[in-house]
User: Which sequence fits this backbone?
């Protein structure tokens, strides 16, 4: 009797086990359980801290000693220097000698009708940076004698026209007296941007002054965004020569400010000097702009 009771009890346990196993396969198991075959293994359930232990809390007043604050250099306002200090810094950074010293300008060209369409021109620097350029002068009589005396590369009248048409002469600029202009009115297609023009100062009766500018003149030009990079000196120039060239180029650029109808503070954003192997040195705008 006891044997039959134990046997029936064992059958009941096996039936219950198979039933539970089937339920584990058919029903969804909680995320805190791992299913291995047909068995169900209960795991420990981890929950986030309701109260963070003190050892993980950030300590207040980590150190009471004074510390240096560290900031990104890009977030700081660059210092500005006087022309005298900037030239001294340029001399200190001049490692190789006879390097080009560039003037960097960032300008506001205005908006709408008052916007400066093209900021471009030619300036005569007191101390030339580049070699003298070749200049052809159309002139006759006394003006031709003055042009030769002033150092023009080619001087002549109608005899030069055929040579220009055939492309025998190489020159950088072309100047003409006002009375000779009718003789070369058919040359714009050949001379193009070198065609003498009163607005550019290449058609004038003051040949000597024009040759002084165009023989040692430096062409400057800003892009559409108002940025300009212009070589104004060499690093081995004296302090007086660098300051003289800087003053002259700023005077020429400042002449375009009237077209934009802007004040000096609004026209110039940044004025800097830079060497190829040195940092950019920002200048005080009030010291480099004409009064």
Assistant:
């Amino acid at each position: 009797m006891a044997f039959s009771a134990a046997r029936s009890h064992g059958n009941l346990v096996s039936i219950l086990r198979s039933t539970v196993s089937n339920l584990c396969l058919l029903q969804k198991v909680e995320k805190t359980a791992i299913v291995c075959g047909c068995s169900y293994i209960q795991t420990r359930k981890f929950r986030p801290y309701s109260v963070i232990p003190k050892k993980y809390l950030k300590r207040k007043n980590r150190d009471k000693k004074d510390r240096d604050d560290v900031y990104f250099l890009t977030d700081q306002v660059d210092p500005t220097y006087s022309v005298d200090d900037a030239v001294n810094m340029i001399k200190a950074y001049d490692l190789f000698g006879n390097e080009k010293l560039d003037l960097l300008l960032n300008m506001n060209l205005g908006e709408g009708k008052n916007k400066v369409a093209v900021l471009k021109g030619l300036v005569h620097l007191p101390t030339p940076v580049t070699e003298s350029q070749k200049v052809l002068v159309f002139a006759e009589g006394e003006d031709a004698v003055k042009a030769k005396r002033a150092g023009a590369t080619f001087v002549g009248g109608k005899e030069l026209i055929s040579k220009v048409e055939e492309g025998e002469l190489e020159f950088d600029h072309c100047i003409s007296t006002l009375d000779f202009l009718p003789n070369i009115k058919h040359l714009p297609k050949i001379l193009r941007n070198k065609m003498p023009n009163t607005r550019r100062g290449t058609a004038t009766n003051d040949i000597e002054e024009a040759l002084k500018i165009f023989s040692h003149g430096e062409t400057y030009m800003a892009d559409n965004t108002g940025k300009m990079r212009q070589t104004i000196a060499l690093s081995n120039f004296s302090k007086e020569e660098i300051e003289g060239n800087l003053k002259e180029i700023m005077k020429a650029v400042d002449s375009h400010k009237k077209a934009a109808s802007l004040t000096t503070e609004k026209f110039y954003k940044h004025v800097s000097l830079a060497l190829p192997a040195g940092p950019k040195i920002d200048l005080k705008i009030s010291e480099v702009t004409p009064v």
In short: The longest strand covers residues 100-107.
